[in-house]
Amino acid sequence: MTDPLRPDVLRPDVLIGAALPPVTMAALERAFTVHRLWDNPGDDALAQVRGMAASTLAGPIGAALFERMPALEVIANFGVGYDNIDIAAAAARGIVVTNTAGVLDEEVADLAIGLLLATLRRIPAGDRFVRDGHWTDASFPLSPSLRGRRVGIVGLGGIGKAIARRLGAFAVDIAYHGRTQQQGVGYPWYPTALALAQACDVLIVVVPGGAQTRHMIDADVLAALGADGVLINVSRGTVANEDALIAALQKGTILAAGLDVFAHEPHVPEALRALDNVVLLPHVGSGSVVTRAAMGQAMVGNLSAWFATRQPPNVVPETRHLAG
Ligand code: NAP
Ligand code: 8YV
After folding, report:
1. Treating both helix axes as pointing N-terminal to C-terminal, what angle do 158-168 and 105-120 enclose, rounded to 10 degrees?
2. What is the pLDDT of residues 140-159, one digit of tens each?
3. Is residue 236 among the annotated active site residues?
4. Which one of 63, 115, 209, 253 has the lowest number of neighbouring Cβ atoms within 10 Å?
C-alpha cells in the first residue's frame, strides 16, 4: 500500500521504454509510479525517475537519455540480451542493469530447432505449396536433410546449451565456439567462428550482440560453411554481416538460412525477402505468451528487489560491482 506521506518510498518512479505485454504493464503499474517514454514525459517527470523498464523494442538507450534522468539507479531489461543499452555509459553513472537470464532458454531453443528444421526441410514452402493448390499438379521437390550433419553452435551459453540438449535427440555431431573452452563440456571447441564453420555444415548463432560480435559471421565464415551449409541466427542481426549473407545466399555460397533477427528490425531487406532459400521470422525466439509473461515477472522482480534490498537476482556482469 502507498504511504501518502512518502509515495516515492513504496512506489518509486519507473520509466517504461516501450509497451510490454498487458500482464507486465499491469504489474508495473501496481508496483510503481509509471511514466511512458512514448508519452514524451517532460524533464521534470524524468528527473524523478529511479528505475527503467527497457527492451529492444524501445531502441538503443544511452548517455543522452541518462542525462535527463539524474536519479536513475536501475535499468531492468525485458530480455536476456542487453546490447540495446549502452552498458559502459550506464556503469559510468553507477546505474545497475539487470536482464531476464534463465526464464527463456528453453523457449528460444525450441524456436531455434524449429527454424533449423523449417529451413532444411523447407516446411514454410511446403505449406505454401499445399495452400496454393499445386499438390494436385506436381510433387513437392525433395528437400535437404539434417541427417549426417555436423552442427556448430556459436555461443554455448544458456540458450546454446538448451539447443545442444535438443540436438542430442537428433543424433547429429555437435561442436561449438566461444571465447573460452568450457570445462566439463564434451563437444569439440573451436577458437574462432571461422574454424568452427570449416568443421561444420550448420551454424546456429546464439552469442550476445554488441561491438564484440558485430559481423562475426562474415563473408569468410560463410564461404567456410560451404555450398551445403546452413546458417541459423537467433542472436542479433548485427552478428551477421547482412550484405555478405544476402550475397552468399544469392550466389549459392551457402545453401540456406533461417533468421529470427535482422540488422535493422523491423525492416528486412527486399533482397532477403525475395530469396526462396531463407526462412524469416519476426524476432520471436522468446515470443510465447507464457515466456513473455515470465520475462515480465522477472523484470518487475528485479526492479522491486533493487528498491527493497539493492540485490536484484539478475544483475549483468558489467554492473555487478554496483549492486548489493
Ligand atoms: P549467455 O548465457 O550469456 O551465453 C552467451 C554465450 O556466448 C556464452 O557461451 C559466451 O561464451 C559466448 N560469447 C559471448 N561473447 C562472445 C564473443 N565475443 N565471441 C564468442 N562467443 C561469445 O547468453 P544467452 O542467454 O544464451 O543468450 C545469448 C543471446 O541470444 C542474447 O544475448 C541475445 O542476443 C540472444 N537472444 C535472442 C532471442 C530471440 O528472441 N531471438 C531471445 C533471447 C536471447 P564465452 O564467454 O566463453 O565467450
Ligand atoms: C526479446 C530477446 O524478444 O531476450 C532477448 O535477448 O531478444 C528476446 O527475448 C526481446 O528482448 C524483447 O524486447
Report:
1. 50
2. 999 999 999 999 999 999 99
3. yes
4. 63
